[in-house]
Automatic annotation (TrEMBL):
GO cellular component, one term: cell envelope
SUPFAM superfamilies recorded: Periplasmic binding protein-like II
Protein name in UniProt: ABC transporter substrate-binding protein
Species assigned in the record: Pseudomonas zanjanensis
Keywords, ordered alphabetically: Signal, Transport
Similarity remark: Belongs to the bacterial solute-binding protein 1 family.
Signal sequence, renumbered to the chain: 1-28
Length: 433
């Protein structure tokens, strides 16, 4: 059974349950409607970003019901969302990404009409890159609002720690990365802050795949799911390098949240972290300045590539007119110029609007965001722009789960063999497809 029919089967059970078994919340007299938003933006920096949206929606007269579900990468939030849907009680709006959006839309639970007028009036089709708009459409209709773009293949560096360890240059190759890691260890620092949760392991895995196999190889293996690319010699090499990268990971990082690991780099306990640019939200919340207190560089060997991760908010069908109006308000706010600027500055991302991506300095974005925008536009032309597997952009959640299992087992098994792991990867992915 493929992933779409799997989700559809689960959701269709919902029709057996009484509809709208949930209580209608009493609204404050002046509220135009109440919208619940399920998301996983719960770290200090992420919360600061989502509060920008909440404040605007409330200012517009709607009641924001916060459906935050802790857990980086969102797998807990997705589990909660599925059980809410099965119980016939989906929220008005939920953070859903990539091919998962189409999967949800195919169940009939997403609203294919509610965004139409806003999208036309605000000219979304011309404001957005086709890669972005395709991600949030189902059979030609917008079913989600794209919020921002994250780059995943970053390496975050504390230059003060590098200096103390005697490292004079930011690493641009894997060899230089290992040399820096050795010096950091020798000087008593954690070389690589890393929380050993599956999505974080796979965030590192895909960066290493990109470095070893290039954007073309990455696409074949992690996007097209080509069995030869998944099991071939280049993948074996990538897995060999991954094992070496893992020797620099924080020994106390098992099961640790990404933001707690980011804090170790910010506080000078660790030298580096491989993480998407939501990590910048933590640096920003700690009042640190890009290019001065910290450095963002492409993960070694990946400066000509950009693994993208588009956060988006999907709209679920609702009976209540006030909620529907609230969904439209959220959609309008999110793609507005001011929100795009303030949210992304807090979140560490870059805007989804093409006009803004071309003129980042004007909006006061820092050096990391300016580099990200420039690379996004350049790599879109060169083929270096690829969807992140670890962040739900490349595959369905079922296939992503197969990657997560094999990669995390491989990192944690002291006897693991890269050639054997590549075979397992191919088999697991083929059966999850
Ligand atoms: C990503 C998401 C980001 C950030 C990160 C950590 O998947 O796109 O917005 O929240 O997870 O939770």
């Amino acid at each position: 059974m493929n992933a779409i029919s799997r989700l559809a089967t689960v959701i269709s059970l919902a029709s057996l349950l009484p509809v709208a078994a949930f209580p209608v919340t009493a609204l404050a007299a002046e509220s135009k409607g109440s919208v619940e938003v399920v998301h996983w933006w719960t770290s200090g920096g992420e919360k600061a970003a989502v509060d920008v949206l909440k404040a605007q929606v409330e200012k517009d007269g709607f009641t924001w019901k916060d459906g935050a579900v802790a857990g980086g990468g969102g797998s807990t939030a997705m589990t909660v969302l599925k059980s809410r849907a099965v119980a016939g009680n989906p929220p008005g709006v939920a953070q859903i990404k990539g091919p998962d959006i189409q999967e949800w839309a195919s169940t009939g639970l997403l609203d294919t009409d509610i965004l139409e007028d806003v999208a036309k009036a605000e000219k979304w089709d011309s404001l957005l890159d086709k890669k972005v708009s395709d991600t949030v459409k189902y059979e030609g209709d917008y079913v989600a609002v794209p919020v921002n773009i994250h780059r995943v293949n970053w390496l975050w560096i504390n230059p003060e720690v590098f200096k103390k360890a005697g490292i004079t240059k930011n690493p641009t190759t894997l060899e230089e990365f290992y040399a820096a890691g050795d010096k950091l260890k020798a000087a008593g620092f954690i070389a690589l802050a890393h929380g050993g949760q599956p999505w974080q392991d796979s965030t590192v895995f895909e960066a290493v795949v990109l470095s070893v196999m290039g954007a073309d190889g990455y696409k074949k293996a992690l996007v097209d799911l080509d069995n030869k690319a998944l099991t071939g010699p280049e993948m074996v090499k990538a897995l060999t390098e991954l094992k070496k990268v893992a020797t620099y990971m924080d020994a106390d990082g098992k099961g640790q949240d990404w933001n707690l690991e980011a804090a170790k780099v910010i506080n000078g306990k660790a030298g580096m972290q491989i993480m998407g640019d939501w990590a910048k939200s933590e640096w920003t919340a700690a009042k640190k300045v890009a290019g001065k207190d910290y450095e963002c560089v492409a993960f070694p060997g990946t400066d000509k590539a950009f693994t993208y991760n588009i956060d988006s908010l999907a709209v679920f069908k609702q009976k209540d007119a006030g909620t529907a109006a609230g969904q439209q308000d959220i959609a309008k706010v999110v793609l507005g110029e001011n929100f795009q600027k303030v949210f992304s500055i807090n979140k560490g991302s870059i805007p989804v609007r093409n006009d803004m991506l071309g003129d980042m300095a004007k909006y006061g974005f820092d050096s990391c965001a300016q580099t990200a925008a420039k690379d996004f536009l350049t790599d879109a032309k060169s083929g270096g722009l690829q969807p992140s597997m670890a962040h739900n952009m490349a595959t369905t959640l079922a296939v992503q789960g197969a990657f997560f299992d094999v990669v995390t087992n491989y990192i944690n098994d002291p006897k693991a063999d890269p050639a054997d792991a590549a075979k397992k990867l191919g088999a697991a992915v083929q059966s999850a497809k």
